Amino acid sequence: MAIRQDIHNSEIPALCRACEARHRGVCGALTPEQLVELSRHTTKRKVEPGTVLVSDSDTIDSYANVLAGVVKLTKTLPDGRQQIVGLQFAPDFIGRPFKQESSITAEAATAVRVCAFPKTSLDRMISQAPELGHRLHLQALNELDEARYWMLTLGRKTAAERVASFLHLIARHGDPEAESEGEISFDLPLTRADIADFLGLTIETVSRQLTKLRKDGLIAVENNRHVTVFDVDKLERRANI
Amino acid sequence: MAIRQDIHNSEIPALCRACEARHRGVCGALTPEQLVELSRHTTKRKVEPGTVLVSDSDTIDSYANVLAGVVKLTKTLPDGRQQIVGLQFAPDFIGRPFKQESSITAEAATAVRVCAFPKTSLDRMISQAPELGHRLHLQALNELDEARYWMLTLGRKTAAERVASFLHLIARHGDPEAESEGEISFDLPLTRADIADFLGLTIETVSRQLTKLRKDGLIAVENNRHVTVFDVDKLERRANI
DNA sequence: GGCGCCGCTTGATCCAGGTCAAGGCGATGC
DNA sequence: GCATCGCCTTGACCTGGATCAAGCGGCGCC
Fold first, then answer.
1. What's the CA–C1' distance between A6 and C14, in Å?
2. Which residues form the HTH crp-type domain (chains A, B) (predicted)?
């Protein structure tokens, strides 16, 4: 009983509830005993925007769950051209199971809270708890679906469609602050430069497209960050979802 | 013993050997008994280029292994713009575990041999053979890595770099016919239109870039299909790998 | 043989989005 | 208050790749 108490006193259960909320994340698949075991090796960190969590060249020795904030996954060409290849929202899992190096950089796009644990202890648990492996498999498949969706966007959509698609993505993922009959407000977790790197565009083009959406009365923007979409259906039509 | 004989007389072991060769595919993870079980529901098909194996809107009720040829995975916008989001070579696995519909179309790019089996029987085996689930998990992670690599290509590379990257991909995956000290020959499994849909370009641009590579003495092309790369290193440099 | 079709190449022109440059504006520091 | 900095917007211009159009060569068919 002491052990159970221990779990509930720790912050793990909160994490797990968050994971359950979207049927992703790691912890929901573990038994209380495994949670306690894992919590021994767990470190929660709060990091500033711009902090590199996993670097391109690193060997990976830890996994992490995103508890709050947004993490961008990037790839960079030798000459510096950069592409964001994924965005991780809470309670997504960060890491590349079954492989030593990642070929991808993970960087905090906003202030981020992560719950990190060593690769070895999670890998051990995967072999013990098949449900856990299944969860990770599911997340990989979801990320694959998303990556392929963005391949279509990057390969075939116009700048206007890309920006609308991006706003649609954030409207779905970022915790909406206000929502009522087709209207929705949220804070952009990314700078214009990040948005450009995500959409394969330049800062200027992103800015112009946002201006256009504003002038067309589809959105309002305050302080360059806070966006209100007046009609999500119209936005979807622009995005060619 | 009759059973074992049965396995070796069927074509399954060949398939399995092919799978093993690249540590992908499904069958290597099964016990002989499971193989026999699976082989009961297995149908081998030889299909023409252009045959749709899985359609966008379909509910998925079967999986398949690619035995020979190349299958293209495509996504299409309502107005017809198309993007190839993945190429499956033997012995890749086709299908989307844990989900009813695919959001992706799978179409034979060349003449293709596939080994198909009903989703239900494989799903049953996944729960019995953890190693099998693990294989599928690995393939999903590999495909994710590839998809993200192509996101970088689609978002940030020039037409010249994209075409070089594509040739490099085929040189690695398509069975090389001749290879010696940096020189390599192969048949393109895709038409110019397919290449364009893969690279987010137009037919004309692909054609012009191939002409440029030819004039620069990096490649030779016969009958629009057969390509010889004279210096793989040089090609890689053009591709900005 | 001749004809049409298909896949590909090549040339001429156009334009969406990139590049370059000049501010605007809020935050931070002196 | 003023200077600096980071982030964003806007305008002017340029260009890589799209679009439009013509033609070529192999192949199947009448």
1. 69
2. 157-233
Sequence ranges of the domains in chain A = 2-146, 157-239
With contacts defined as CB-CB under 8 Å, which chain A residues touch B137? 97-98, 133, 136-137, 140
In contact, B66 and B92? CB cutoff 8 Å: yes
CATH of the domain spanning B2-154: 2.60.120.10
Distance A79 CA to D16 C1' (A): 19
CB neighbour list of residue A160: distance below 8 Å, 6 or more residues apart: A209, A212, A238
User: What CATH number belongs to A2-146?
Assistant: 2.60.120.10
**Is residue B130 classed as helix, strand or coil in its secondary structure?**
helix
Chain B contact set for A240 (CB, 8 A): 77-79
Match domain A157-239 to its CATH number in 3.20.20.10, 3.20.20.140, 1.10.10.10, 3.30.300.30.
1.10.10.10
ipTM of the complex: 0.91
pLDDT tens digits, B179-233: 778 899 999 999 999 999 999 999 999 999 999 999 999 999 999 999 999 999 9
Strand partners, B221: B227
> What is chain A's Cα-based Rg?
19
